Amino acid sequence: MQKNLTLISTLILLSSCSILSPVVTPEVKEYQITTTNTDEISCKTESNAAILQVSPVRVFTPFDSRGMYYSVAQYQLSSYSLSQWAAMPSEMFNQAILQKLQKSCIYSDVSGSEFMVTAKYRLASQVMDFKQVIINGSSNMNLKVYTQLIDNTNNTVIKNKTFIETAAVESSPAGYINGANEVTNSFTNDLVTWLSTK
């Protein structure tokens, strides 16, 4: 009887201290890379009658995950625990590049299909760096993308370029998102300019 009474009084004490109450976990917010929306463009004449095939964008590890990475010291990466991407960065970058190039009127058609046999050119892109750097009170969003324009008829590289984009941002997840959108916009604009020149 004494043991039962002790057990009951212990359970009452624990429940009154809220130890057995459910733990409230904070909600993880999901974000998407969004690029500046331009009005629908009706291309009267393309600057190049060829078709461009956009290969799926490769994103180097660890940046091709749903984690949103930042660095406060060299060779150190952390990710925001309550903020993450809604989709993989490779998918979001691929979509941003396709949309921008389709509206650019550089090529007669731009396709994201891997099995396009009629495309004269192919664009291959690799995201090498995609993080927020917070050092000495300043915060920047960095994006580094290596891109190749390839002639599909003989599988040779016509030209290549490493795009490096940086934007000063606030040291927070909101600053990260704003910076990610800004550097992605800068990259896609620079990519169109680069593809437009011979």
Protein model, in words:
With 198 residues, the protein is of the alpha/beta class. It has a single domain, classed as Rossmann fold (3-Layer(aba) Sandwich), CATH 3.40.50. 28% of the residues lie in helices and 38% in strands. The chain contains three helices and nine strands. It has helices spanning 2-16, 89-104, 173-196; strands spanning 29-31, 48-54, 58-59, 67-73, 76-85, 107-111, 121-135, 138-151, 156-168. Strands 1, 2, 3, 4, 5, 6, 7, 8 and 9 form a nine-stranded mixed β-sheet that branches. The chain is elongated, with a radius of gyration of 24 Å. It starts with a helix and ends with a helix. The mean pLDDT is 86.
How do the strands and helices of this protein lay out in sequence?
Elements: H1 2-16, E1 29-31, E2 48-54, E3 58-59, E4 67-73, E5 76-85, H2 89-104, E6 107-111, E7 121-135, E8 138-151, E9 156-168, H3 173-196
Parallel strand pairs: 1-5, 2-6, 2-7, 3-7, 4-7
Antiparallel strand pairs: 4-5, 7-8, 8-9
Helix pairs in contact: 2-3
Per DSSP E runs of 2 or more residues, the count of β-strands stands at 9
Biggest sheet descriptor: 9 strands, mixed
CATH topology: Rossmann fold
Q: Which descriptor suits the 3D outline?
A: elongated
Structural class by helix and strand composition: alpha/beta
Radius of gyration: 24 Å
Name the helix and strand elements from N-terminus to C-terminus, one letter apiece. HEEEEEHEEEEH
Distance between the termini: 92 Å
How many structural domains can be distinguished in the coordinates? 1
Strand content: 35-45%
Could you report the average pLDDT, rounded to the nearest whole number?
86
Range of helix content: 25-40%
Total helical segments:
3
Name of the CATH superfamily: ABC-type transport auxiliary lipoprotein component
Q: How does CATH name the architecture?
A: 3-Layer(aba) Sandwich
Assigned CATH class = Alpha Beta
**What are the segments in which pLDDT stays under 50 over at least 5 consecutive residues?**
none
